[in-house]
């Protein structure tokens, strides 16, 4: 019995040992190959970059670049992409033209059909870079447009970025709509890319989505608009400031009102918006009224002072603090109100008011 | 006498078979971890830290520190948290019953003033004496509270935090400055579903043999508790790993009862019982790792700390995760609680039996194969399988040094470690150094939500 067990165990462990030995040998070979490749790339990539810099500086001699393409095609592709974010205008067009001429764009187009997700994603990321150049857009065709519906979000993202690069406002609007329905990571990344089209999108695309009635998308668009932190030509925000949908179980309507209040300082202050902000200051939900207090302070709405003073006296600690900060942002009347509150009978309100007043005076002195 | 001899023989044989099967089970988990890492590496995930750093859409993070005193090391840790690269990182330092001198040290360290900042009481804690903010342009909040224990202090930190995400970093770990940015990315991929992210790497190997044993220990834990468990969405933090958790999830789970391990167990338990889709993600990147142990004493400390946390989690598994506690911890229970005891018993019986002639050399060899040789297989397997799964410019010398360290690890250190594990299984998880030496029992939150199966 013991002999059998011993034999089985020894056989099994011997098998493991052999397997690991072979695997270790394979790994060692792979490691040395990778190190060799890395060493070659380390030596070569600066040379490729130098050749590309010469070309971008105006030299029309492509002999060295073509030689590199013949011997190290992948490294040239990487080197071209490494200029992303560092070149623009005609230099970028020249680089894209070179990628097209060397058939690198065709290679990347082929790679989009790869079964390896990493290869596909890299290919779309590269195409996104060159899609700013119109001849490259023609070669790429509707490859990136179709990729917007890809199952892989890491493919949808570069495809969307490629369309943003194209500069076509219709396509950019499509990307804006797509961003509103994607996960938060993609939304963040696309929001940054779409920032430079903020004015056009908020004038043309945003109103449609804000009136769509889909609370999740409405909230996503409001958050994107707030994230741009720019003055936006957007009308009709008061409807969202008053947004109430009792059928929603997950508090999305409340989130929408808070997001709309955060957006209010960036859009034109119409009488409707002003009234809506004043109304929200008296909302029973303390988070909504806190957001309203913050907005009132930013917009320096003097007519909100009685409500803000009431918030300092009777609101939750956070609301009182925010309302006191808002009053502190409106000297001299706001400061006078804070002084009265600081001398008042309510100790909590007096403490918060005096702290806010002190801070505002210190800031003003600085 | 003959009867005793036969009983010893069969007991040793049964133990050896059982240990062999446990070894195969542990190896299976390692292979599972390798496949999970491989899948992840093949899918690839670009690092978007630069965009996340700038975006106003990135959720704010509050990192909580509970320093045991006002020593330079504690203050340095708080400063390290403030130096983290992140757009909206707020550091909450909770002082659990500090003395006047300690409070004065913290006041002068951060140029503090008493703040009117409100403290929510979503989690029950000992009374908060005061909240302080800095006059300097740094986002730090210092909470002075009555002593209540480490878990109580963590809960006070969660109450004070205003961010939707809470960051927990181990003071005894090495973490990179971009840790929050890197950790946030997996959370943003599915923000509604992801309630926490555990991230980090294993300890890098060094020249010293004890360092390499520490590295092997950490590597096995990383591949099982991290990678393998992540493939079943049951990831648990390993020593030195960083944790990001949603504040609302922490509050819904009733808050801290111990360290990060217990918190994650609690979050798993609550999410499983609610039967909603959820995810606790694993980031297998070297954003944070435990400090490399220098010498046997530090290695002992490392093993002790981990084993005590695990022992506490085993003991409180029903309170932490209801009927799901066993499901989450069973693999670890067999590896860390059952195996060391069985193995030590097998060694003792085999040695005694061999001396008295009750056990033959073949059976003794079988015991050795089931324990030491199986241990070598696991350590060698962990090294090789990690390299198979994550081929990132490997260093052959480092692989070889770890590979070879697995041999002495299992011929001497393993047996000693078994004794440590047995000792620490019975010891309490109480932190000796916390509360300036005053031992204060960590009480479970009053609003404990013990998940029960529907």
Structural description of this entry:
The complex is a heterodimer of chains A (366) and B (454). Chain A is mainly alpha-helical and 366 residues long. Chain A has a domain at 285-366. Chain A is built from 22 helices and no strands. Chain A has helices at 2-56, 63-71, 73-81, 89-101, 104-111, 117-130, 134-140, 143-147, 153-166, 169-180, 184-194, 198-204, 206-210, 215-228, 237-241, 252-263, 271-280, 286-299, 305-314, 317-328, 333-342, 347-365. Chain B is α/β, with parallel strands linked by helices and 454 residues long. Chain B has 14 helices and eleven strands. Chain B has helices spanning 2-43, 49-54, 72-82, 100-110, 150-160, 179-189, 209-231, 247-252, 260-274, 296-315, 317-321, 324-356, 361-389, 396-426; strands at residues 61-65, 89-96, 112-114, 128-134, 140-145, 165-168, 173-175, 194-199, 242-246, 279-283, 288-290. The radius of gyration of chain B is 23 Å and the shape is globular. Chain B starts with a helix and ends in a 28-residue tail after the last helix.
């Amino acid at each position: 019995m013991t002999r059998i067990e011993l034999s089985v165990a020894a056989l099994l462990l011997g098998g493991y040992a052999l397997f690991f030995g072979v695997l270790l040998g394979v790994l060692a070979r792979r490691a040395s190959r990778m190190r060799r490749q890395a060493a070659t790339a380390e030596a070569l990539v600066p040379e490729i970059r130098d050749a590309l810099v010469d070309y971008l500086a105006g030299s029309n001699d492509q002999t060295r670049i073509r030689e590199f393409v013949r011997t190290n095609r992948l490294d040239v592709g990487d080197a071209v992409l490494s200029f992303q974010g560092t070149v623009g205008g005609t230099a970028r067009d020249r680089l894209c033209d070179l990628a097209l001429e060397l058939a690198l764009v065709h290679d990347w187009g082929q790679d989009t059909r790869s079964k390896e997700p990493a290869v596909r994603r890299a290919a779309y990321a590269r195409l996104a870079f060159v899609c700013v150049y119109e001849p490259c857009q023609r070669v790429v065709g509707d490859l990136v447009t179709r990729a917007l519906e890809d199952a892989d979000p890491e493919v949808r993202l570069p495809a969307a970025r490629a369309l943003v690069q194209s500069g076509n406002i219709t396509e950019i609007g499509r990307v804006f709509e797509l961003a509103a329905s994607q996960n938060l990571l993609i939304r963040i990344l696309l929001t940054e890319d779409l920032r430079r089209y903020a004015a056009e999108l908020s004038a043309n695309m945003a109103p449609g989505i804000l009136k769509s009635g889909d609370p999740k998308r409405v909230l996503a668009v409001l958050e994107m608009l707030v994230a741009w932190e720019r003055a936006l030509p957007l009308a009709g925000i008061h409807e969202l400031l008053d947004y109430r949908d009792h059928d929603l179980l997950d508090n999305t309507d409340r989130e929408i009102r808070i997001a709309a209040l955060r957006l209010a300082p960036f859009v034109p202050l119409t009488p409707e918006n002003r009234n809506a902000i004043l109304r929200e200051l008296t909302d029973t939900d303390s988070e909504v009224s806190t957001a309203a207090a913050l907005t009132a302070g930013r917009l320096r709405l003097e007519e909100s002072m009685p409500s803000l003073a009431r918030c300092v006296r009777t609101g939750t600690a956070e609301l009182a603090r925010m309302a006191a900060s808002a009053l502190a942002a409106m000297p001299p009347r706001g400061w006078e109100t804070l002084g009265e509150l600081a001398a008042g009978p309510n100790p909590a309100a007096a403490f918060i008011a005096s702290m806010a007043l002190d801070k505002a005076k210190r800031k003003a002195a600085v | 006498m003959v009867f005793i001899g036969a009983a010893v023989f069969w007991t040793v044989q049964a133990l050896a078979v059982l240990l062999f099967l446990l070894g195969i089970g542990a190896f299976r988990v390692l292979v599972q971890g390798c496949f999970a890492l491989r899948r992840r590496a093949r899918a690839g995930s670009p690092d978007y830290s630069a965009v996340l750093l700038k975006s106003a859409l990135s959720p704010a993070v509050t990192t909580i520190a509970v320093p045991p005193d006002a020593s330079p090391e504690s203050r340095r840790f708080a400063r390290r948290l403030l130096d983290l690269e992140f757009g909206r990182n707020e550091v909450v330092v909770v002082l659990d019953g500090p003395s006047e001198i300690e409070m004065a040290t913290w006041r002068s360290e951060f140029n503090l003033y008493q703040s009117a900042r409100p403290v929510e009481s979503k989690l029950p804690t000992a009374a908060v004496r005061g909240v302080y903010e800095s006059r300097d342009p740094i986002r730090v909040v210092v909470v002075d509270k009555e002593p209540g224990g480490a878990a109580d202090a963590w809960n006070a930190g969660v109450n004070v935090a205003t961010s939707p995400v809470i960051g927990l970093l181990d003071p005894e770990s090495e973490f990179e400055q971009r840790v929050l940015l890197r950790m946030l990315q997996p959370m943003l991929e599915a923000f509604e579903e992801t309630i926490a992210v555990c991230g980090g790497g294993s300890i890098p190997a060094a020249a010293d043999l004890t360092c390499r044993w520490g590295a092997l220990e950490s590597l096995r834990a990383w591949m099982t508790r991290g990678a393998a468990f992540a493939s079943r969405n049951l990831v648990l933090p390993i020593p030195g790993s960083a944790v990001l958790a949603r504040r609302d999830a922490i509050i819904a789970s009733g808050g801290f009862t111990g360290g990060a391990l217990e918190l994650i167990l609690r979050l798993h338990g609550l999410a499983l019982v609610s039967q909603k889709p959820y995810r606790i993600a694993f980031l297998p990147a070297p954003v944070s790792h435990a400090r490399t142990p220098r010498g046997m004493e530090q290695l002992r400390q490392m093993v002790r700390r981990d084993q005590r946390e695990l022992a506490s989690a085993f003991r409180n598994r029903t309170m932490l995760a209801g009927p799901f506690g066993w499901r989450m911890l069973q693999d670890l229970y067999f590896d860390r609680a059952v195996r060391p005891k069985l193995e030590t018993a097998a060694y003792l019986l085999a040695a005694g039996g061999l001396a008295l002639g009750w056990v033959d050399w073949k059976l003794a060899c079988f015991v050795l194969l089931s324990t030491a040789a199986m241990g070598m297989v696991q350590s060698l397997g962990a090294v090789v399988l990690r390299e198979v799964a994550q081929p990132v410019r490997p260093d052959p010398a480092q692989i070889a040094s770890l590979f070879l360290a697995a041999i002495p690890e299992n011929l001497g250190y393993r047996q000693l470690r078994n004794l440590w594990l047995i000792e620490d299984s019975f010891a309490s998880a109480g932190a000796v150094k916390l509360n300036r030496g005053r031992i204060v029992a960590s009480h479970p939150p009053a609003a404990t939500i013990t998940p029960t199966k529907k």
